[in-house]
Amino acid sequence: METIDIEIGRLRERLQGQELKTVIIPHISADGDAVGACSAFSEALLKAGFDCHILTCDYFPEYLVWLKNIKRAISYQNKPEECARLIGDADLIFMLDHNTTKREGDLEGLVKAAKAEKVIIDHHPGPEAVDYVISDVRVSSTCELLYKVITEIWGVDVIDTDVANALYTGINTDTGGLSHNSSRPQTYRVIADLLERGLDKESVHHYLYQMNKLSRLRLIGNALLNKLTVHPDYPVALIPITLEELNTYNYQDGDLEGLVNIPLSVENIYVSVQITQRKERVKLSFRSKGAIPVNEWAKAHFNGGGHLNAAGGQMDLPLDEVVKRVNETAAWFFETFVGA
Q: What values do phi and psi take at 11, rounded to 5?
């Protein structure tokens, strides 16, 4: 029996016949996989009769708030005392789509100090040691893994349209519409089962891909026309975006989703780095083609990590300094991991 099956079995026993207070936490700047996982798993816990709250250190992207239970999520930014109370009272804290409390932003200290048992359900490499670790780097997304967790704990009947839509949202967005990290047949078996159990694929696609605002299109257009540069010595595209530009185009959370992937459509670009200035810090998104491990770049120099082809980081430095560091460390990265 695989370790993952043992861990799911342990969690199933922990959840049997008990009145438990549970909290679900995604990573900072939650994406479609993280938000889909929060939606699906919270619904499963609520159906099973558990007290359940979704907490986030920031805010969920606007284009994902239609998912079940997401509108009732609690942000630390406007309700810090309530977040502290719920974490302090929790019996179980579920860490979804991240492998360390360091990815929880302002909630990190509260989670570390909590008496609750911690449960990681994730697909990133190198999860930290907590009470339950359900981790599989082979799956396309945390939502694909969560399908296994939910059905093995509560059975397939818990998968209704709301849960199916949430799980498919995570699978679809974390694979770029099934264009990468999606070659396992099991991924499509999961999607087929979701369809049989009520997945409204057309509705999900509508919310994900047909809800653009003109301000978002203009923000992305400006970034591609006026901000995109290519490193003079390495096949790296950089897209730095200032806070002033975000304000000019009325930025809403999620408006930059997918931008970092666009330069990879250019034949001779193998790495794309989006560097976005926010009020609290500068955030970086890394994407790559083939076997180029951008997670190593993010981890070594930008306080981040992630997958081989998709990673993130953050820096408490001015935007220009972060751009400079990306340019200066490109040689180290390519010579160390790519052989260029």
A: -65, -40
